[in-house]
């Protein structure tokens, strides 16, 4: 294995592997390399993992003969650079390639039919300029677990083959131009991350999405260890997840679309979900009380819809909830009580609902405490809050206690006694001269002082 950190031209990649025929893993990530991506002339059959990601200055097209030079490569990471042009179709012919990361470049053009090879497990193509529709002839027995096509220019409908892949657990298609309905065959309950936000999706989010394919979903094999990072919005902020946090997070984001109809009660089947975002749509009807079944949920955003009715008191049972918003709907009734996690949510979580009452009840002020009066009507000075006789007595006792403590300390420690009288004398002398210098003292006192 070789892990190199350097600056300069990337051109040496054309001869370095050729002179190290046993090289299997070659990392040049997070450097400041520049120039065009050049590969050796002769095949290098032992190289299995090549990562030149996050350099920022490597440009040019991806060499089309990459599959003949590195025929046995299993992981190829070229993200975070300035590659442009089309993705060479030869890449899809790499029979050993399982992880492909070409994200954060300037790649354009359409993806060819069958772009995901049957042996691929992870495909990252986000933040490019790719477009066209997704058409392919993939079979059902594929091993694809991660598909990240976010932040591109894809159009058309979301192909049904995507929702039928048996191991697909991370589906990021957000920030594109997809339209049409959400495929019914999506296995939402078994998905770790599914992001369809910021598209043009329409239609109803029907209960069939959660129930019609339940046998198929239960037969799916979980895929939970992505090798590269992914972006996902949680608690209104965009986070980059990788490693263990990526394996622990689970969420569904359908925000910023044109989805209509009621939110189905069956959405409560997503018991292990941590993030649910349905904001900026056109959902109507009540908030499903079954959301209370999502015991692990941490972020719930239903804002900017047309939801109506009351907020179910059952939602206060969501003890893991740390971000909550139903703002800008048509909700009515009273806001949930300020208990459990709901004691942390302010008015921003409910604003924009004209008929929703979130005003706290006014507390009746207690009358001021008054001292007890005697029977003979002697109540001089008893209009205040303090019993003055008790105040004088306690003050006198406190003053005497302080004097006794000082006397005891000075008696026990002769050094402290000597220091005490010294400082007392210095203080008296300083006060005297201050008075003499600043106040009009009769002359006879000054003369008397000078004789001393």
From TrEMBL:
<protein>
    <submittedName>
        <fullName>Uncharacterized protein</fullName>
    </submittedName>
</protein>
<dbReference type="InterPro" id="IPR051502">
    <property type="entry name" value="RLP_Defense_Trigger"/>
</dbReference>
<dbReference type="GO" id="GO:0005886">
    <property type="term" value="C:plasma membrane"/>
</dbReference>
<dbReference type="Pfam" id="PF00560">
    <property type="entry name" value="LRR_1"/>
</dbReference>
<keyword id="KW-0732">Signal</keyword>
<keyword id="KW-1003">Cell membrane</keyword>
<keyword id="KW-0433">Leucine-rich repeat</keyword>
<comment type="similarity">
    <text>Belongs to the RLP family.</text>
</comment>
<keyword id="KW-0472">Membrane</keyword>
<keyword id="KW-1133">Transmembrane helix</keyword>
<feature type="transmembrane region" description="Helical">
    <location>
        <begin position="391"/>
        <end position="412"/>
    </location>
</feature>
<dbReference type="InterPro" id="IPR032675">
    <property type="entry name" value="LRR_dom_sf"/>
</dbReference>
<feature type="transmembrane region" description="Helical">
    <location>
        <begin position="419"/>
        <end position="436"/>
    </location>
</feature>
<dbReference type="InterPro" id="IPR001611">
    <property type="entry name" value="Leu-rich_rpt"/>
</dbReference>
<keyword id="KW-0812">Transmembrane</keyword>
<keyword id="KW-0677">Repeat</keyword>
<keyword id="KW-0325">Glycoprotein</keyword>
């Amino acid at each position: 294995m070789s892990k190199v950190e350097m600056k300069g031209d990337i051109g040496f990649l054309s001869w370095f592997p050729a002179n190290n025929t046993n090289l299997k893993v070659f990392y040049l990530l997070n450097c400041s390399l520049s120039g065009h991506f050049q590969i050796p002339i002769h095949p290098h059959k032992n190289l299995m993992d090549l990562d030149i990601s996050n350099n920022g200055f490597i440009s040019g097209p991806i060499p089309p003969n990459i599959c003949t030079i590195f025929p046995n490569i299993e992981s190829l990471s070229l993200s975070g650079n300035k590659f442009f042009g089309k993705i060479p179709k030869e890449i899809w012919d790499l029979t050993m390639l399982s992880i492909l990361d070409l994200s954060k470049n300037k790649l354009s053009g359409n993806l060819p039919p069958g772009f995901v090879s049957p042996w691929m497990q992870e495909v990252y193509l986000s933040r490019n300029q790719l477009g066209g529709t997704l058409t392919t002839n993939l079979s059902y027995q594929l091993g694809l677990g991660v598909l990240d096509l976010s932040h591109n220019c894809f159009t058309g409908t979301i192909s049904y083959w995507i929702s039928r892949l048996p191991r697909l657990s991370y589906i990021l298609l957000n920030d594109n131009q997809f339209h049409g309905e959400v495929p019914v065959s999506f296995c939402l309950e078994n998905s770790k991350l599914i992001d369809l936000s910021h598209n043009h999706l329409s239609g109803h989010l029907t209960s069939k999405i959660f129930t019609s394919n339940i046998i198929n979903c239960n037969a799916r094999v979980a895929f939970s260890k992505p090798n590269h990072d992914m972006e996902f919005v949680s608690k209104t902020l965009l986070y980059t997840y990788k490693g263990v946090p990526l394996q622990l997070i689970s969420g569904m984001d359908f925000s910023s679309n044109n989805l209509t109809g009621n939110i189905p009660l069956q959405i409560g089947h997503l018991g292990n979900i941590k993030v649910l975002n349905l904001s900026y749509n056109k959902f109507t009807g009540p908030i499903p009380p079954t959301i209370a079944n999502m015991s692990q949920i941490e972020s719930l955003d239903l804002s900017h819809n047309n939801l109506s009715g009351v907020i179910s008191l059952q939602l206060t049972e969501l003890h893991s909830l740390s971000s909550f918003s139903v703002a800008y709907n048509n909700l009515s009734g009273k806001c949930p009580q300020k208990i459990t996690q709901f004691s942390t949510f302010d008015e921003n979580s409910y604003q924009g609902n004209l008929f929703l009452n979130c005003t706290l009840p006014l507390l009746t002020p207690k009358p001021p405490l008054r001292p007890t009066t005697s029977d003979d009507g002697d109540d001089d000075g008893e209009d205040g809050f303090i019993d003055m006789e008790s105040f004088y007595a306690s003050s006198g006792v406190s003053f005497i206690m302080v004097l006794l403590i000082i006397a005891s300390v000075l008696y026990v420690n002769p050094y402290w006694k000597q220091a005490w009288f010294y400082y007392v004398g210095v203080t008296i002398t300083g006060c005297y001269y201050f008075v003499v210098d600043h106040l009009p003292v009769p002359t006879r006192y000054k003369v008397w002082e000078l004789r001393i």
